[in-house]
Amino acid sequence: MNESFPSISSSSSSSSSSSSASDVLMSFLLSLPPSSFSALASSLASDLRLLRSRLALLLLSPAHFSRALSRLRSLPLPLKSLLLARLLLRSLRLLLSSSTSSPSSHPHRLRLLDLDAALLLMAMCDSYHPHRPHPHPVDWRSTVAAHALSSALSPAALGDTPWAVLGPYVDLAAKCPRFLEVAGSSNGGGKMGEGARAAVAAVVALPSVEYSGCEEGDGGGSRECAVCREEMAAGWQVCELPCGHRFHWGCALAWLRKRNTCPCCRFELPTEDVFAEIGRLWRAVVRIGGGDGTSCGGAGRASRGG
Ligand SMILES: [Zn+2]
Ligand SMILES: [Zn+2]
């Protein structure tokens, strides 16, 4: 059986980029106020119990394992990549939950069935080393079990510190830049998620404000809508993006149907495109952590989460 995986293993040339991604995440976590940090650790503790119990169920129940494995095998490579992307996005969202006001329900939530398949796929990617001898065909259950056991017994996973809880999420989220890099290159060199439209929920939540006629910022009080170049009359209801820039409602809606960035400052709104959303949240992590940013499909644009 010829298995095809999205290649995100950090065992190859990517080890330096994934360790700098871990550094970015560490400085992000260290920048959190102590109260947010401990709140984050305790909210992640219950999620980690869920992840571990799903993985344990997969490994302890042969029927469950083979169901998840045959489901994975039925998926073409792009859908396997999407599954991993959703797992990575989930970990980024959870890590960022303390520093952004994320909506209570979002379109990227994983159903339990998908979560199991994604966890299994990630465990397969992590435990498989192409240069090491593996039996043929690979006995995935024992390969994944051996890897799960060794990582459960690693010093970082032991003990009752917040870092023992955060570690697995940092490990997952640190794969994001490398993952987007690989997914982008398999996409013909284009950046994944480029041109993604703004999430419907984010657009619906945009406030309507009365245009006063003398706006601050924006190059000294522009009365012009940057989309249509026509003046906005005082007293009109206009659309305000979270960055503060204002546009005619019709212009903003037409623009955000195609893109998730502000026409003036490229502030990024949430998007339903999983890959673009990973890029957006990763840039937010880089910005909050004060890092210089590793490559993640685009310039370090201003981005507010949520
Ligand atoms: Zn306009
Ligand atoms: Zn703006």
UniProtKB/TrEMBL annotation:
SUPFAM superfamilies in the cross-refs: RING/U-box
PROSITE patterns on file: ZF_RING_2
Gene3D superfamilies assigned: Zinc/RING finger domain, C3HC4 (zinc finger) (3.30.40.10)
RING-type domain mapped to chain residues: 225-266
Record key words, sorted: Metal-binding, Zinc, Zinc-finger
Signal peptide interval: none
Gene Ontology CC entries for this record: cytoplasm
InterPro entries: Znf_RING (IPR001841), Znf_RING/FYVE/PHD (IPR013083)
GO biological process: protein ubiquitination
Single Gene Ontology MF annotation: zinc ion binding
Protein's UniProt name: E3 ubiquitin-protein ligase SGR9, amyloplastic
Species annotation: Ananas comosus (Pineapple)
